[in-house]
Every structure is written in C-alpha cells, then in structure tokens.
Specification:
The complex is a heterodimer of chains A (414) and B (339).
Chain A lengths: L5 E3 L4 H19 L19 H10 L7 H6 L10 H16 L3 E3 L7 H4 L9 H6 L4 E4 L11 E5 L2 E4 L1 H20 L4 E4 L6 H11 L2 E3 L11 H5 L4 E4 L10 H13 L27 E4 L6 H9 L4 E5 L10 E4 L5 H80 L1
Parallel strand pairs in A: 6-7, 6-9, 9-10, 10-11
Antiparallel strand pairs in A: 1-2, 3-5, 4-5
Chain B lengths: L10 H13 L1 H7 L8 H6 L7 H11 L10 H12 L14 E4 L9 H16 L19 H8 L5 H15 L8 H10 L4 H5 L11 E8 L2 E9 L4 E3 L2 E2 H4 L3 H13 L6 E8 L3 H19 L4 H7 L29
The chains are: A alpha/beta (414), B alpha+beta (339).
Chain lengths: 414, 339
C-alpha cells in the first residue's frame, strides 16, 4: 500500500475561513431549493449534492441571481430548530469545508474507486499492478508448472509473478474484450467468490454485458434451452436500441396473424418493435471472463466444448491452459481482482462506444451517399426537363414556321 | 486440470493439433469423401475434445448452412422434419439486417434473472444511499415484509429461503435510513416489498362478551390447545363436559386451572366451561389456565397487573427439545466405552 503522506497547506487561514463561509452560504442556498409542490414546512432538497461543483459554480459566478437572493430571504432565525434534512445538509457542508483545512492527502488507495471509476487499459502501469498486489502468487508447494514462464521468482516461500507479464497479458485480454464488445458480442463476467459481486456487476454494466455472481449452473451453455429458455430476449441494433417496425411491416404482420387464425382482426395488437418468435433458442455467450477458474471448471469445460473463448485470472496454482487467454495474476486479493475486472470492464465500455461511433459514421456516410445520389438524380432530371422544353419549343417553332409557310403559299396561290 | 477441460484455443493444444494434422493429413485426405463436409477448423480441433461426435457435426453444419451441402446432411434432414411438421413450421423467422438477439436482463446466464434483477436493484439503492444517516433498529416502526411465497410470485422465479433472507436484511437496512431523509425511490421500492395486508393484520380482533354474557378465549401450552368460556355464575367448572376432578386427578392441575380466579378472589363469581385437546394432563391444565386468564381479562381488564404478578398471563414457551443425531435423546449421549 502506498503510504499516506500529509503535506501542510501553505495558504492563508483567512482564505480558508472565507472558503468555509462560502461553503456554508452556498449550502444554505441548496437547502432552500424546494421542489415544486412540496409544502414550505418541510423543505426538501437534493440529498446527494456535489459540493465540488457547487463551490466551483459559486466561485465562477459570485452573485448568481437565482440562488443568492433566495438565501437572503431564508435567513435562519436563531430560535428555530432545524429539520433533520437541514441538519444533515449543514453537517455535510461543514464537513466538506473543513476537509480542505490542514493538510492535503497525496494520492492514496481508495477502495471504492476501483469499482466506481476503474482505470482504463491505457492506465495499466507496473506500479499500479505492484500496488494492488497482483504479483503475489501461492506458496511454492502449490504451484502448477504450467506457470513457469510467468514466474519472476520466489520470496518468503511464495511465487511472484512477473509484473511485465501481467501487464502484457492484461492488455491483450483488454484488447479482446474491446474487440468483442465493438462487434456486439455477448460478454459474460463470472466471479463467484465472496466480495467479487459488485466489481463483476459494475464491469458487466459498463460493457452492457452479463454477470454470474453465484454458482455457475452446470449446463447453462450445453443445455441452454432447458435452463435459459423461458427468459426474455430482444432484438437490438448496433446502437443497442430496439429495432422499430415501420407501419407497412406492422400491417403485414397483422395480416399474417389474421391469416394464422385470429378472429378479431380489429383487436389485434402488434408491438412497435421486432419481437422474437415463441421458443426462440436461448443465447450462448461469445466471450467469458472468469475471475476464479479454479472454482468454475465446469464452466470452462462447457466453454471449451462450444469453442467459446475465455479469459481467466490464473494464479500460480492454476493450469493456464484451462482458459484461452490467461492473465497470470493474484486471484485471491480482492484489490487485484477488482483492478483486473475493472480494466476489462472499461475496455468493454470503450469497445461499445467505438461501435456506436462506427455506426454513427456509417449512417452518416449512408446519408451522404443518399444525398449525393439524390442530387445527381435531380440534376439529371432538370437537364432532361430543360432539354424537353427546348425540344418542345423548337418543335412548336418549326410547326408554326411550317404553318406560316403553308399560309404564305396559300396566299401566293390565290 | 484434466485433459477434458483443456481448452482448444490454448497454445499447447493448438500446437498439438497442428502436429496431429500434419501426421494424419494423408488419412484425412482419404477419408474426406466419406465424411460430411465441414470447416477446416473444426476438423483440427476434433481429435482432443470431449464433445460428442454428433454435436461437433451439428456445430460444423450450422457454420456452413448457406453453402450448398449434399442431400444427406443433417440440416437437410432437419428441414425435412420441419416440413413434415406443417406449413407453419418451415416458415423461418428472419432477423432484420444488422440486428442481434440479446437477452433483456444482465443476469440472464444465472438462469434466474427475475430474482437477481430485483436483488441488484436493491443492492444498487443500498450503495447509492449508504452514507445517509440511519436510526437505531429499535426506533424503526414495525414493518412486515412479504412472505417467501409472496416474494416468489412477485419475482416470478424459484427463490431459496436463504436468498430471501439476504433480501430481507437489505430491506431492513434500507428501512433504517432516517425517515426525514428517506429518498423517494427507496420509499417506493420498500412499499413494493411490504406486506399489503399488514395494517389489517395489526388490527386485533376486539375482545367482546357475547349476548349470553360469555367471554371466550383460547390458550396453549406444550402441545395442548384449550378454549374457555367464562360466564358470571357461582363457581362451576367443567372441562370437556365433565367436572374438574374427573379429568384432573392431581390437585396441582386443578389448582392451576383455578389459579387466576383464586388470586383475584373470584372463584365463586364465575362459571368456567372449557374444552381442551392434545398433549398430556399438565399441558392441558396449563392451556386451560391461560384461556381462563384471557377470558377473565375480557370481563375485567383492570385485573391485568394482579394476574401478571400471579404469572398466568405469559404463554409458557417451553416445549419438547428435538432429538439430535449422535445422541440418544435431545442431549443424552450414548455410553462411552473405554478401549
């Protein structure tokens, strides 16, 4: 763990006090922000306030007309007791303000940040891996010789994994997750140990993938229609949105349903989106990320049987050939596991966003092509119409000349 | 890990596959015309997987479905079967171009997405509002959560009791948030999980004396159930239609039945008509005592402190302790023999 170092703040106390009062004032204005419809007796405000932002706002616009007058009108009378909400908000504001006083904590490990804001694959450094203890393996008696090429050495009876190997393998795995996510594949994160639940779920949320946090039910892949058949599926496009039916398609579908034997054609309801038929086969994953391969042998076996690539954290006691893309790292420390699954989740998220971007580009390109085609068609049409007009005019002129000639000849004949 | 779980994508396996392919290329060439056509990659990985041969063929066939395969292939057979089933069956569903089929729920692969979805929404709420101040568990107003079968019908899946216990723990924690600070979304979720008939359940049936002047009450002890009617009278006492001494030969039991009346000096002011079922004699006597006490309280609620001091208001919770394995009775160990 990186030691916490405390550096003294070199700013003037006066500035701090002014900041404190600013916070308090700002905070009072927050508490008076009532939602419309609520009674004045029970002031309601946002429960979770981003104070950083509020202070920044206040600093950038010292006299915001919307909030400051409100704060003046709602001056607290000394005898009035505060409601619980006001009390809580004041407490938070005071805490926030006084947190700035004294020293500054240098960068240190905040356990929740690996879950709420994990590093991206670009941010993987050997220092980060070392700090999270990803290099610590098992006692040398427990090792699996398959890990020979990943091992750096022995220290205090345990194997240490090479940090550069971890970083390389983790980057490779991140690239794979990125690619699968970019192509719209189905990624399943499996972490069945205690304490891994939240990291797994968050990673799955980032990639819009799937998670298994408790026992892997044997047969989820090999016997999928029995086990997963009754769960809902939907049809998505590249932007992860349900595909809408056009009016014409709907009418067609209604007709089909009516032909299939539904009597009340007026009462027929057709969904706006594409629906899958009844008994549509269940889905298999396209990539499985396994955090504890040792406890999920069945799952890995099923994946191997159906040629589903797997990514797994292989500690020094795990056979690295049990997964397709091993990440040799410590799978017993929650911190290292959270780091790895967080990085993979971020990679998936980036892949998903890349897919959206590519899709937007593609639609733009299509639109541009369509417009170009339209333009050329329009020009062609115009040309043809003008040519036609010219032709008509010429013809009319020649006809009239002909008639004139005829008339002249008639006159001359007489 | 055993060779059955070895992954066909791993490096060693790929190497071995290449070697095998090189050494048996002549044979596989000879056999090419006899086997159904399939992708190269599947042929390579075939030698060392646990997949049954039939399944592999199927997977391979799925891959080159669009390629023109011979008439005896498995897909063709399936098509025939489908055609035989009826005209509707062969009309295949076609996905729009660029579409993919994706499960709705993120917990699809757990097989019980209904439960896990509700579980994770609760957990998310908990993480979101974890820092809000809470009140003591004793200060929380009494709430009853949905029962397990109720929850099962709500979540729509198979839920184990242990899992619902965890859910209830999270609900309790959310319910402990300071009521003034309780966010709206938490409130609505908690309302979803509260038992709908809880208010009605809390309302007790009023104790009444019926038109004949009887007060009815029930009592229990051990495995006995009793029901007693108390009427103002001259001190008669009948149990199951018989006088007291016929049913209870022991003096202690008879005294215990009349004890609530005796301590309040009302033995000769009420008649007792009791019936009891189940258990033994002393259990029945205790059950009748409780019933008589409750009925007496209906007549005269002010007697409660006196009866409390006499120790007849509380239901005796002691029952037979279950027998455990490895013991002869509840606690009796089999004799230990020195060897």
């Amino acid at each position: 763990m990186i030691p916490r170092r405390v550096a003294t703040r070199s700013s003037q106390p006066l500035r701090l006090i002014s900041q404190y009062t600013l916070c308090l004032r700002q905070h009072r204005s927050i508490s008076t922000e009532t939602s419309p419809g609520s009674s004045p007796a029970a002031p309601r405000g946002p429960l979770i306030v981003d104070f950083e932002e509020q202070v920044k706002l206040a600093a950038s616009e010292p006299s915001r007309p919307s909030i400051v007058p409100q704060a003046r009108t709602q001056v607290q009378t000394p005898g009035k007791t505060l409601t619980k909400l006001e009390e809580y908000q004041r407490l938070k504001a005071a805490k926030h303000a006084s947190d700035q006083i004294g020293g500054v904590l240098e960068d240190h490990y905040k356990p929740h940040e690996l879950i709420t804001n994990p590093p991206s694959p670009r941010d993987i450094t050997l220092e980060l891996l070392l700090a999270s203890g990803a290099h610590l393996g098992h006692a040398t008696a427990l090792w699996n010789p398959g890990n020979q090429r990943f091992i750096f050495g022995i220290r205090q009876g345990i194997h240490l994994i090479s940090l550069d190997v971890i970083a390389a393998h983790l980057r490779r795995a991140a690239k794979i997750v990125h690619g699968v996510s970019k192509n719209g594949g189905i990624i399943v994160f499996v972490g069945t140990r205690d304490g891994q639940e939240r990291a797994v779920v968050e990673a799955a949320k980032r990639t819009k993938g799937f998670h298994v946090t408790e026992r892997w039910v044997p047969g989820t892949i090999t016997n999928k229609d029995q086990l997963l058949g009754d769960q809902k599926l939907r049809v998505l496009d590249h932007l992860d949105q349900e595909i809408q039916l056009t009016e014409q398609q709907k009418a067609q579908l209604k007709k089909k349903l009516a032909a299939a034997g539904n009597k009340d054609t007026d009462k027929l309801q057709v969904e706006d989106t594409v629906q899958l038929p009844f008994r549509y086969p269940a889905i298999r994953p396209d990539l499985v990320v396994c955090l504890n391969p040792l406890e999920n042998k069945t799952m890995l076996q099923e994946c191997a049987q159906y040629r589903i690539p797997t990514i797994g954290i292989t500690d020094t006691d795990v056979d690295p050939t049990c997964v397709t893309y091993p990440i040799p790292a410590n799978d017993d420390s929650l911190r290292s596991v959270q780091l790895i699954v967080g990085v993979l989740g971020r990679a998936g998220q980036e892949g998903r966003l890349a897919r959206y971007e590519a899709e937007a580009d593609r639609t733009e390109e299509l639109e541009r092509k369509r417009k170009r085609l339209e333009e050329s068609q329009r020009i062609q049409e115009e040309a043809t119409t003008t040519a036609q007009i010219h032709k008509d005019a010429e013809q009319a002129a020649s006809e009239s000349r002909q008639q004139e000639l005829e008339r002249e000849s008639l006159i001359s004949d007489r | 890990m055993s060779s059955a779980t070895r992954n066909p994508f791993s490096m060693t396996c790929c190497l071995r596959a290449l070697l095998e392919d090189a050494s048996f290329s002549g044979r596989s060439l000879r056999m090419a015309d006899t086997r159904p056509r399939m992708l190269r990659s599947y042929q390579q990985t075939r030698a060392f997987t646990a997949t049954p041969r039939r399944m592999q063929d199927k997977a391979a066939e799925k891959e080159d479905d669009d390629v023109d395969t011979g008439p005896q292939t498995i897909t063709a057979k399936f098509k025939k079967v489908r055609e035989r089933d009826g005209p509707d069956a062969d009309e295949e569903f076609e996905l729009p171009p660029g579409a993919r089929v994706v499960p709705v729920s993120a917990s699809y692969f757990t097989g019980n997405s209904a439960f896990f979805d509700s579980w994770f929404t609760l957990k998310d709420l908990l993480y979101k509002y974890q820092t809000l101040p809470t009140i003591l568990p004793s200060e929380v107003p009494r709430t009853a959560w949905r029962t397990l079968p109720d929850f099962r019908s709500m979540a729509g899946g198979v839920v184990q009791a242990s899992k619902y216990k965890k859910v209830r723990a999270v609900l309790q924690r959310l319910n402990r948030i300071q009521p003034d600070l309780m966010p709206e979304d938490v409130k609505s979720v908690l309302d979803n999980y509260k038992r709908p008939d809880f208010a009605a359940m809390q309302r007790r049936r009023p104790k009444i004396i019926d038109r004949f002047g009887r007060a009815r009450a029930a009592g229990r002890r051990k495995t006995s159930n009793a029901e007693a009617y108390l009427v103002e009278g001259s001190g008669g006492c009948y149990v199951n239609g018989k006088p007291l001494f016929e049913i209870f030969p022991r003096l202690v039991d008879r005294e215990s039945i009349l004890w609530p009346l005796k301590v309040t000096n009302r033995v000769d002011r009420y008649n007792v008509w009791a019936s009891s079922r189940g258990g033994g004699i002393s259990g029945q006597a205790g059950a009748i005592t409780l019933a008589v006490t409750k009925a007496l309280l209906t007549h005269e609620p002010l007697l409660k402190p006196v009866l409390r001091r006499a120790g007849v208001i509380t239901r005796d919770p002691r029952t037979v302790e279950r027998k455990k394995h490895g013991k002869r009775k509840a606690r009796d160990m089999p004799a230990w023999v020195a060897r």
